[in-house]
């Protein structure tokens, strides 16, 4: 009996040795994130630069509330009362040039806020819906939009002037509908003879019309929008012109996602997006000439390269390609402060070109200042999109513009003299620039860059016309800076790889040390020694140096198995030195490492943070280099870290789920098992904005879609596959995995399973769903890689 007991005990201890122990569990790390702590977000200053406001939740309420810290009493964190919040100045108020006053809308009234006195006053009560008001070149005058037209208020005289006369729809026809045919003319006359009341009303109407014509002093100019929708109506600072975008939307068929758990008890369709290959929305820029009472539509036919065909057409020699003017979107003009010049950002609908052009407001003519051509697609930090959002503006001299460009392969800051065309790079090197802005005294730039390391962000100051950058932050990680309005202090949202975001404060100089103002971690979270993942690089088969996060187990606990994590989005950076948006996965990787797994998290081709060539490395072939980077990562683990061939799994969500499918279908000799979460299975069924950048359109470039979509490679499945998807996913639709499931059934594959989550969208919300999903992932790896 004793020998039997000892034998059983020995077997039990052997099992414990085979599966290392951990303080962590899936249930623990996938619970409500509040167990980690509460952390500040959305930092902003008061206009005097004395108080920092931020969203926070130290009381563990269902949602964050607004809190504040006075910099003169930095140890005191106070909740902002609702009464105090009601007295706040609208966050999107516009300042005058001197930044001494702000104009904003409050409850249908236009308000002026004086920074020095910290007081506001009502200057015009409208009661109607009012668009965001702005100061004009004459700083005593402000413009605003109301009922689809522009008005100007003179702050000295209180005179109100309407500047435009724009109406929706088409110009109305006369009430009689024009000349009648013989039949209708007879019917009208007969009706007037028979019916006295109708005849009397017609006589009065004709008398009124004759009076209006006799008393009219001049023809009133009215511009009708027709079937289009107007957006972006604005007045030039010199008040001579108004500009607007006229949008004509195409009738693209939209998709529906069934909600099987709707509160009504009925299956209800959620109307969502269309699919790639949309007919493009037509966007025209209109110029309203106020003095000459006319509207000009800007023509883009003079832009250099407007008829250029993309290089990929060479793969389709059998097709006739017409070199015609491409469809473009002309953005809203950006005016110089004196109102004498305007520039526009223009993007081609095929995503290959961005032009920055000088706009002649009197004629609508364009003069190209800078063209950025990319045979893949134009993008990158500070580049923006067809509808703005990028770095673009004027220097105080009203003749230099600034913008960002990937001309050198990395997004940098440039100046261009519009009078000479001379362009100058203010920054350069193998790093990227983020969110530059001009100082209050108009003498310097403030900007964030990745110059120190691709996985760090630091804040700098630089002379306006270029020169040496002064680094103002020092903490290793991500320093997300908010500069006080008086530019004397810096509030920093800071985090490190294993330390979530906290708020810090320091004077605006390089030598000052930051003071930590918040400390939100719970004791439960701090009780575990969270790993600081090692940042490594390995060499890909094409010679590229691929960055990754490496989690290594204690050699005594290593089980010889490995898991590779594939981040989502494609264009996202996860190999960095700050707290990841994939914090659940970070904790899961700690759990895996405790259990003896080696974990590798790769910033594969297509990821953000490494310049243009890395960003576009997936052009026309998703599942190409982005997949081979995973294979090369696996080989790196085998050759350098003792991982055993045949014991490597892979998982990821969204784009990461897509790569997992491609790995199980096309690299089955490398990956034994994988978990594909909320995965794209066929790119022809995804949205237009994302997909057409990378793969063009399916009817123009079917080669790109065929070689990039997992559903075409499902016959290659050999390993063990877990598919998991939310059933009300309005981003990557549940339909994607339903179609793949049918394909796997038809192929006779039986080494796969699917878990569905009826109440989840693309980003899971419920801890129960997260827990169920990751318990399945852990079981998959334990069953297929360890035993």
Automatic annotation (TrEMBL):
Transmembrane segments: none annotated. InterPro entries: AB_hydrolase_fold (IPR029058), Peptidase_S9_cat (IPR001375), Peptidase_S9B_N (IPR002469), Serine_Prot_S9B/DPPIV (IPR050278). Pfam families: DPPIV_N (PF00930), Peptidase_S9 (PF00326). Residues 230-501 form the Dipeptidylpeptidase IV N-terminal domain. Residues 1-20 form the signal peptide. One of its GO terms (biological process) is proteolysis. Keywords: Aminopeptidase, Hydrolase, Protease, Signal. Residues 590-784 form the Peptidase S9 prolyl oligopeptidase catalytic domain. PROSITE patterns: PROKAR_LIPOPROTEIN. GO terms for molecular function: aminopeptidase activity; dipeptidyl-peptidase activity; serine-type peptidase activity. PANTHER family: DIPEPTIDYL PEPTIDASE 9 (PTHR11731:SF193), PROTEASE FAMILY S9B,C DIPEPTIDYL-PEPTIDASE IV-RELATED (PTHR11731). This is Dipeptidyl aminopeptidase/acylaminoacyl peptidase.
């Amino acid at each position: 009996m004793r020998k039997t007991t000892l034998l059983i005990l020995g077997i039990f201890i052997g099992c414990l040795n085979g599966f290392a122990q951990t303080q962590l569990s899936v249930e623990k790390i996938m619970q409500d994130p509040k167990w980690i702590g509460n952390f500040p977000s959305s930092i902003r200053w008061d206009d005097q630069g004395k108080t920092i406001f931020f969203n926070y939740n130290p009381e563990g309420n269902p949602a964050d509330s607004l809190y504040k810290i006075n910099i003169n009493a930095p140890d005191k964190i106070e909740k902002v009362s609702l009464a105090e919040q009601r007295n706040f100045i609208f966050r999107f108020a516009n300042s005058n040039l001197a930044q001494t006053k702000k104009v904003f809308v409050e409850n249908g009234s236009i308000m002026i806020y004086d920074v020095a006195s910290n007081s506001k006053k009502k200057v015009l009560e409208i009661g109607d819906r009012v668009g965001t008001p702005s100061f004009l070149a004459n700083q005593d005058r402000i413009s605003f939009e109301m009922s689809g037209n522009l008005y100007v208020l003179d702050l000295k005289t209180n005179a109100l002037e309407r500047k435009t006369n724009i109406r929706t729809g088409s110009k109305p026809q006369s009430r009689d509908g024009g000349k009648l045919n013989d039949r209708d003319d007879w019917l009208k006359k007969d009706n007037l003879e028979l019916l006295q009341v109708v005849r009397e009303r017609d006589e009065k109407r004709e008398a009124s019309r004759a009076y209006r014509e006799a008393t009219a002093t001049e023809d009133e100019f009215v511009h009708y929008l027709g079937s289009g929708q107007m957006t972006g109506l604005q007045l030039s600072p010199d008040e001579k012109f108004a500009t607007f975008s006229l949008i004509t939307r195409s009738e693209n068929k939209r998709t529906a996602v069934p909600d099987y758990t709707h509160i009504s008890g009925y299956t209800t369709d959620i109307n969502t997006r269309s699919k790639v290959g949309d007919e493009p929305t037509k966007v025209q820029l209109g110029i309203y000439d106020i003095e000459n009472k006319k509207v000009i539509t800007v023509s883009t036919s003079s832009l250099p390269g407007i008829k250029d065909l993309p290089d990929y057409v060479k793969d389709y020699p059998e097709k006739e390609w017409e070199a015609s003017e491409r469809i473009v979107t002309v953005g809203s003009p950006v005016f110089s402060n004196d109102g004498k010049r305007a520039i526009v950002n223009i993007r081609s609908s095929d995503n290959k070109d961005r032009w920055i052009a000088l706009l002649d407001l009197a004629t609508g003519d364009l003069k190209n200042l800078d063209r950025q051509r990319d045979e893949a697609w134009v993008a990158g930090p500070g580049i923006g999109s067809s509808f703005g959002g990028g770095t673009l503006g004027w220097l105080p001299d009203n003749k230099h513009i600034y913008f960002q460009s990937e001309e050198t392969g990395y997004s940098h800051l440039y100046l261009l003299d519009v009078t000479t065309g001379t362009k100058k790079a203010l920054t350069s090197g193998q790093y990227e620039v983020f969110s530059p802005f001009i100082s209050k005294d108009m003498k310097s730039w403030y900007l964030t860059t990745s110059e120190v390391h691709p996985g760090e962000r630091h804040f700098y100051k630089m002379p306006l016309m270029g020169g040496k950058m002064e680094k103002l932050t020092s903490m290793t990680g991500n320093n997300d800076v908010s500069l006080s309005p008086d530019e004397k202090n810096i509030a920093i949202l800071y985090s490190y790889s294993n330390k979530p975001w906290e708020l810090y404060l320091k004077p605006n100089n390089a030598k000052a040390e930051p003071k930590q103002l918040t400390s939100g971690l719970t004791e439960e979270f701090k009780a575990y020694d969270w790993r600081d993942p090692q940042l490594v690089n390995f060499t890909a088969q094409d010679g590229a140096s691929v960055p990754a996060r490496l989690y290594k187990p204690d050699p005594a606990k290593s089980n010889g198995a490995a898991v590779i994590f594939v981040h989502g989005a494609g264009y996202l950076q996860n190999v960095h030195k700050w707290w990841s948006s994939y914090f659940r996965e970070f904790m899961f990787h700690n759990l895996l490492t405790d259990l003896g797994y080696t974990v590798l998290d790769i910033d594969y081709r297509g990821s953000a943070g490494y310049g243009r060539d890395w960003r576009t490395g997936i052009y026309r072939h998703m599942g190409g280099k982005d997949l081979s980077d995973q294979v090369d990562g696996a080989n790196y683990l085998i050759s350098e870290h003792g991982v055993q061939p045949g014991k490597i799994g892979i998982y990821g969500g969204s784009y990461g789920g897509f790569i997992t499918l491609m790995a199980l279908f096309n690299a089955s000799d490398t990956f034994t098992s994988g978990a594909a979460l909320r995965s794209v299975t066929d790119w022809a069924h995804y949205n237009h904005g994302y997909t057409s950048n990378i793969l063009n359109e399916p009817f123009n470039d079917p080669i790109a879609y065929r070689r990039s979509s997992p559903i075409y490679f499902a016959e290659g499945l050999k390993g063990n596959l877990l598919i998991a998807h939310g059933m009300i996913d309005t981003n990557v639709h549940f339909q994607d995995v339903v179609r793949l499931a049918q394909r796997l059934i038809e192929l006779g594959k039986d080494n796969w399973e699917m878990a569905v989550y009826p109440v989840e969208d693309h980003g899971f919300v419920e801890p129960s769903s997260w827990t169920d999903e990751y318990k399945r992932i852990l079981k998959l790896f334990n069953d297929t890689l360890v035993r």
